[in-house]
Design a protein that fits this description.
By secondary structure, the chain is mainly alpha-helical. The protein has 14 helices and 5 strands. Helix 8 packs across helix 11 and helix 11 runs antiparallel to helix 12. It is flat and about 70 Å long.
Length: 330
């Protein structure tokens, strides 16, 4: 069954030289569905995906506008999934790969680079898709009625591009995807405790409705910098250094063959950097609180927050303070 690509030439319109014309859609069609289930459905929703597939040959105007965004993300992610098994085949005699005098198998590091490029490109295009859907949400009721819509609006730090602005340009959408659960934890345990749940929920709703004032946008930008630093701090402890079986390990990439090595983690691998992000997260959160206190007439929900009333009796922290406030610990 064909899904959102009719032939390889159509796929190449979105992935360029990443796909060779010798590929057959019969080989890629099952992988299209797998890529959609693994990467697209959590954000698009199964119902909207199925509608795009069913109406692929005669889409509505809204579907026609959406399809290129979905196809671009899906194309890269389909090739990422196919690359896991595309270089080998299985017969009665076991596994084998095909080579001839004119075509040689790629080196391991080339395969790894190809897969990584396809994965990260797919997720960068997934973010473009989400920006489009968020802006045109009223045209896609199947999306608005799906939990995917709520997931898109459940955080103040919604996009990888926002994380890059707040932290570092060297962070991909795929890495952001891995960090999203930590972003939600940070907002629940650091941001809400600092500004109060009523104001937090109000900012989320105003942003969902695209009705933020200039001052509300300023508060969100200040909070995003704190969220990003706290998230990296927590990620250092939960993602890069992780539990594997009965051991605590860290992952290394070995050049030039791009092999991945898991070794026993040491405290020095994370402790210094974690302290750095903890300090800067607290500084940015203190700056956001300071701004809210200065503009409290425009933020009555913050003015009514009991913790903020108590905080007014304490010395006010600034963004340049080196004092670390122990307000966030999971």
């Amino acid at each position: 069954m064909s899904y959102l690509f009719t032939d390889i030439e159509e796929l190449k319109q979105y992935v360029g030289g990443g796909a060779n014309l010798s590929l057959e859609m019969a080989s890629l069609d099952p992988i299209q569905l797998q890529a959609a289930q693994n990467h697209i459905w959590p954000w698009l929703g199964e119902d909207l995906w199925q509608a795009l597939v069913n109406d692929f040959n005669s889409p509505s105007a809204a579907q026609a506008a959406l399809l290129p965004h979905v196809q671009r993300a899906l194309g890269f992610l389909t090739l990422y999934e196919y690359a896991q098994i595309g270089g080998i085949q299985l017969s009665e005699a076991g596994f084998f790969r095909i080579e001839n005098d004119h075509q040689r198998s790629a080196y391991k590091y080339q395969e790894n680079q190809y897969r990584r490029w396809m994965l990260e490109s797919g997720y960068e295009n997934l973010e473009v898709l989400l920006r489009f859907l968020t802006k045109q949400a009223d045209d896609y009721p199947l999306w608005k009625d799906n939990p995917a819509y709520l997931r898109q609006h459940e955080s103040l730090l919604r996009y990888a591009s926002e994380f890059r602005d707040a932290y570092s340009q060297y962070l991909s959408r795929y890495t952001f995807e891995l960090l999203r659960p930590l972003v939600l934890d940070v907002e629940a345990f650091a941001v809400i405790s600092a500004i109060g749940e009523p104001l937090y929920l109000y900012l989320l709703e105003q942003r969902r409705l695209d009705q933020l004032s200039d001052k509300e946008q300023t508060v969100i930008r200040l909070l995003q910098r704190a969220i990003a630093n706290f998230t990296v701090e927590e990620g250092l402890q939960r993602n890069w250094v992780r539990l594997e079986g009965r051991a605590v390990v860290q992952t290394e990439h070995l050049e030039p063959q791009s092999y991945t090595k898991a070794s026993v983690a040491t405290m020095a691998a994370t402790a210094t950097k974690a302290r750095h992000h903890d300090a800067w997260g607290n500084r940015h959160l203190a700056r956001a609180e300071s701004y809210l206190k200065q503009q409290v007439e425009d933020f009555p929900l913050y003015g009514a927050f009991p913790e903020s009333q108590a905080a007014t009796t304490e010395p006010e922290a600034t963004s340049t303070s080196t004092t670390r406030r122990k307000i966030f610990r999971l």
